[in-house]
Amino acid sequence: MKGARAVLELLEGQGVDVMFGYPGGVTIPLYDELLDSSIHHVLVRHEQCAAHMADGYSRTTNRTGVCLATSGPGATNLVTGVATAYADSSPMMVLTGQVATAAIGNNAFQEADIFSLMMPITKHNYRVLKPDDLPEAIKRGMGIANSGRKGPVHIDLPVDVLRGDIDPARLNESFPVPAPFEDLSQVLDAAKLLRDAERPVLLVGGGARWSNASSEVQRLAEMLPAPVITTIMAKAIIPEDHPLSFGMLGMHGRECSRRALLEADVIFAIGARFSDRTIGYDSDVPKETKVIHLDIDPMEAGKNYRTKVRLVGDAKKGLQMVIKALGRPKGESAWGRRVKELHEG
Question: pTM of the predicted model, to two decimals?
């Protein structure tokens, strides 16, 4: 089996049924094999479109978006779209053609060091140097793109690898990805803070959306009760017409969300980064406000804002544990009435 055929069969085995790309000289072997593939190829007019479309596909379907470009200028045109996906944690498989392995580093026609260019904007970066390495690159790459904090993975494919031969039996090998770090040991502390809070607020970011935690966010908000304030990545995490939906926070946000955050005594941040476009680095939130931070990325909790309780793990799982620990709804409160005033005002 040719390497190009193996690439497509491996992608099909990972559930890929659509790909966005633009052909070039070194990717012709892949395009020849696409004629007999179940993968639907969307032909773009510029490689940057392929990256942005794969990112958009990922956001709207919660599946891995795949884009393809040729070597050199084709590959470099992907960079902005890949960087966007990396910033917003979109799982993507970024495939680039490359000059033949023997020509790498020799200033060959349409050669660029895309491997180095992709390093700071991807979760992982592969350069496949022989056809036998294709199964690991694609299977492990898919796992990495979708484990922990999601993001793009880049695979560089020299043309001689695509034209080379691989034993079809190699496609059946497994390449598991280690489970991401998790620490939800402070769930009971988080539940106690929320139970004792007089003015709780939920600050919800993209991590909750990637985790499909909408129902858990709404359930917790109604139990406390607490207004739901979101970043742009979590817009409509609960219905916009819900009485506890306060919309976005920050420079593009609503006044009621800013007021609620300033009045809160406990902020539960769920998959949110406390970025400069939401809460800001010079926030006027009172220093005595206690913060619970739940994030799948251990580097985010407490990075931009002081944290009382740190939870590292999947948003959906963490919320389910907090809801279970809380037990029952808190009932009517003065804060509930104030939330209604803020929402209507």
Answer: 0.92
